[in-house]
Write a structure and sequence with these properties.
single chain; nine-stranded antiparallel β-sheet; 315 residues; alpha+beta; 16% helix; elongated; eight-stranded antiparallel β-sheet
């Protein structure tokens, strides 16, 4: 007997079986019934398998988060973890070749801060990091570092509210790739996810300095303020805010006679809604952090620039 291509209902199976049994000799009824039972069981197994596959596909669709180059599925275990008082990343690193763009998208409003870390293997770093929210570009930072391994870029972008996309664009030459790590962070987290120290230093001989309770420095539009640091300071915290209007500023690391080791050109559309927070590595001697307010006179900045990591022997 050939199996029907369409699955029959239970009533149809009974009627068909009865008609065939009436035509068969008695000695063949047992074998025929065995074959019918086996075929029914096979059909039921096929139905069960198809239902499982449909459920699996449905679950994957529900869990998927839209992204162009990277999916952002947020789990508690994926959040940065503290080790010896310092934050350590779990986010995978992605290579961004010269002249190319890499994006990370998040469609959940739960992501209110995104940590960005970009470095090189020791060659110059020349890139831009942009925040997109729909048709708006509320934040952009252009970065230059003479040595992207000793002085990488690490910052926290505030992303309250709706869906957002963070883009890392390598505007350097093709032979100068960059390595980027992007991940959402918890509300109380305001630190880099990776520690890059000067030659001869390690996490065992540096200490983290807690944030001070001092007042921020006011920097009028068109003015400059310098913040010198002694050699034992290995990394500096920089935070810029505005009482109203946009933030248009430059954050520069100078060493020696006006030698620019790192330059960050910062633009924030609404400085009162979100500030700019970055960590600047300062290996060596003679380091000065310079803040330049490139905005108009009526848009002053409030800046906090202070030590973040220092040599352990001075603590």
């Amino acid at each position: 007997m050939k199996r029907s291509k369409l699955l029959m209902s239970e009533v149809e199976v009974k009627e068909t079986t009865k008609n065939i049994l009436d035509e068969l000799p008695i000695e063949n009824e047992k074998n025929f019934m065995t074959r019918i039972v086996e075929e029914i069981e096979t059909d039921q197994e096929l139905l069960t398998t198809n239902e499982k596959k449909k459920r699996e596909i449905s679950n994957l669709k529900e869990k998927a988060i839209g992204a162009q180059d990277a999916q952002a599925i947020i789990k508690k275990s994926d959040m940065p973890q503290k080790k010896n008082g310092l934050w350590v990343t779990r986010a995978p690193k992605a290579q961004v070749d010269g002249g190319s763009l890499r994006t990370w998208s998040y469609i959940t409003p739960d992501v209110e801060k995104i940590n960005v870390f970009v470095k090189t293997n020791g060659r110059p770093l020349n890139c831009s990091v942009e925040l997109w929210e729909g048709e708006d570009d509320p934040m952009e930072v252009k970065i230059y570092s003479e040595n992207g391994n000793e002085r990488p870029f690490h910052a926290v972008f505030e992303t309250p509210g709706r869906s957002k996309t963070l883009a890392v664009r390598n505007i350097g030459d093709l032979e100068l790739p960059a390595i980027a790590s992007v991940e959402p962070v918890e509300e109380e987290y305001e630190d880099s996810t990776e520690i890059v120290l000067a030659d001869g230093m390690s996490m065992d001989n540096v200490k983290k300095v807690p944030p001070s309770q001092g007042s921020p420095r006011r920097i009028q539009g068109g003015s400059i303020r310098n913040f010198p640091f002694p050699p034992y300071v290995q990394r500096v915290r920089v935070r810029l805010e505005s009482e109203y209007g946009p933030i248009e500023a430059s954050v520069e690391l100078l060493q020696g006679p006006n030698q620019k080791k790192t330059v960050m050109e910062v633009y924030v559309q609404e400085g009162a809604d979100r500030g700019f927070f970055a960590l600047v590595d300062t290996p060596g001697e003679g380091n000065v952090v310079r803040i330049v307010n490139n905005g108009n006179l009526e848009f002053p900045l409030m800046a906090i620039v202070e030590a973040d990591l220092v040599a352990a022997q001075v603590m």
